[in-house]
Specification:
About 25% of the residues lie in helices and about 25% in strands. It is α+β, with helices and mostly antiparallel strands and about 400 residues long.
């Protein structure tokens, strides 16, 4: 064992060493830790004195879904018949049920009654413009009579209050476009065991909001379809806007029979829903020359962060080697004139702004700020232009050629 001499010359072992000075950093750390422990203890004590009974209350309505038949994609679990949904002999009878008292309470809280087409969610309003979340039985079941398919279960109905139950995580986006109701049903495919097609019909209050939701979820890689002007096909389905509805037809797999059934259902839905393009004149005015596929968007309020820009359609364009963003807003001549002036004033506050010569009766101004340029025009009931451009000259030429009718 090694020894060393202490301050008085005595021998000490290494394990007998005593530290006589604690560094300042350690003392400060100890004080901080003690203070944190005290604060945590106080917080727990305060929290414990305020009991919230709602944290532990039983929501019987949340249990109601467990008493219903498994439908749609959830039906991939084995059924009572021991086969997959869509196979011959498959049933959707649940194996368990709530006790009668709980089941009765759940039914009362959800407002359900009897009837063959009642579902786990109350029926949503079928008429555009109806108050969001108002339950209604006016919307009929989804009956699609086509060869090769068979309904797997009853039609499901959802409204603004319970849409999250069907598309949790995506519901806020739909509500932002004045979602009214969802009607959904799944269909099995003959000759393709285990295959099915899910049909979703989202009804908004107006065709313009239906287009907005469709544009928000548009897949840039989608392929155009010929039976709906605002639509495309993806790897496993069809997506399109018809009237005030945004429709999704989703195939469970790429089996040729399943894909063919999905297309047949999509064409049937496009024919069955009345055509209505009210409010969509703006998107029709966006030039198609040079437009980047799938880039059209719609913003109902506060476009570009400006309160005076409403119902704005915008798309990206390839123009002489430059990537440009062009937008259009249609309103009354007075509203567009006021919006143009407000836009000009705002642009002048944060950069260099200047008037350009009129073009085809349109007033134009150009502004540069933060290294980017915008060229904005106004004529009659139309306001639009190029924003966030890197090349000011190309932005100006694009707007001028659009006003001259050279870009259509």
């Amino acid at each position: 064992m090694a020894f060393f001499k202490g301050p008085g010359g005595e021998k000490r072992g290494r394990n007998a060493f005593v530290r006589t000075k604690v560094p300042l950093a350690e003392r400060v750390s100890a004080i901080v830790i003690v203070c944190l422990i005290v604060c945590i203890g106080i917080a727990i004590a305060i929290k414990g004195r305020h009991f919230d009974p709602n944290l532990y209350s039983l929501r019987t309505d949340a249990l109601e879904s467990t008493t219903k038949a498994v439908e749609g994609k959830a039906g991939t679990l084995r059924t009572d018949g021991g086969v997959q949904p869509g196979e011959e002999g498959a049933t959707n009878t649940p194996k368990t049920a709530l006790p009668p008292a709980v089941k009765s309470s759940a039914a009362e809280s959800s407002g359900e009654g009897g009837g063959e087409e009642s579902s786990s969610a109350p029926a949503a309003p079928a008429t555009p413009g109806a108050p969001a979340g108002a339950a209604s039985t006016a919307q009929p079941p989804m009956d699609i009579n086509l060869p090769g398919i068979k309904p797997m279960g009853k039609t499901e109905f959802y409204n603004a209050d319970n849409l999250f139950e069907k598309i949790d995580g995506r519901a806020p986006a739909y509500l932002g476009f004045n979602f009214q109701s969802l009607r959904s049903r799944s269909f099995s495919v003959y000759g393709a065991a285990g295959s099915y097609v899910d049909v979703y019909e989202y009804r908004m209050d107006t065709p313009i909001n239906a287009f907005g939701m469709f544009a928000l979820e548009r897949d840039p890689a989608g392929k155009p379809i010929d039976f709906a002007p605002d639509g495309y096909s993806g790897e496993l389905g069809y997506y399109f806007r018809q009237g005030a509805c945004y429709i999704q037809i989703l195939a469970s797999d790429q089996n040729p029979k399943t894909v063919a059934a999905a297309k047949a259902i999509a064409m049937d839905r496009a024919k069955s829903i009345p055509e209505d393009n009210a409010g969509l004149d703006g998107v029709r005015r966006l030039p198609v020359t040079g437009m980047v596929a799938g880039s059209v968007t719609f913003v109902p309020e506060n476009a570009q962060g400006q309160s005076f820009l409403k119902n704005v359609f915008q798309a990206s364009y390839d123009y002489n080697g430059a990537k440009l963003s062009f937008f259009i807003m249609l309103a009354t001549p007075q509203e567009t004139a006021v919006a143009w002036k407000s836009y000009q004033t705002f642009s002048g506050k944060f950069g260099k702004e200047s008037d350009l010569p009129d073009e085809q009766g349109a007033k134009i101004f150009q502004a540069e700020s933060f290294g980017k340029c915008k060229v904005i025009y106004q004529r009659e009931g139309e306001l639009g232009g190029v924003i966030d451009a890197q090349d000011a000259e190309k932005a100006r030429k694009f707007v001028e050629e659009y006003l001259q009718g050279k870009i259509k």
